[in-house]
Amino acid sequence: TPYAELIHYESVTRFNTKERLERDESNALKLRKKWNKYMNNDPFYNVNLSIDHEDFRITI
């Protein structure tokens, strides 16, 4: 119907299996290895935000 609403909750339906967690960690390490030199020297990144957490929390 034209009044239907679709909500996507990212990976809520995917379970955190050991394999999935290992794959995600492996992918994160590959990303950091390839792009870390750019991420740490990004002149446009807000210095008040953490690069150590994926939620970009405020650095204290």
Distance between the termini: 48 Å
Give the overall silhouette: extended
What kind of sheet is the major sheet? none
Number of strands: 0
Q: How would you name the oligomeric state of the polypeptide chains in this document?
A: single chain
Structural class of the helices, strands and pairings? mainly alpha
The number of helical elements comes to: 1
| Proportion in β-strands | under 5%
Domain module tally: 1
The radius of gyration over CA amounts to 17 Å
Overall average residue pLDDT: 85
Proportion of residues in helical segments: 25-40%
Low-confidence stretches: none
Order of helices and strands: H
Verbal overview:
With 60 residues, the chain is an all-alpha fold. It has one domain (1-60). 37% of the residues lie in helices and 0% in strands. It has one helix and no strands. The longest helix is centred in the middle third of the chain and has 22 residues, at 18-39. It starts with 17 loop residues before the first helix and ends in a 21-residue tail after the last helix.
Characteristics of this structure?
60 residues; mainly alpha; 1 helix; extended; Glycosyl transferase family 2; transferase; transferase activity
Compile the SSE list and pairings.
Elements: H1 18-39
What would you say about this model in short?
It contains one helix and no strands.
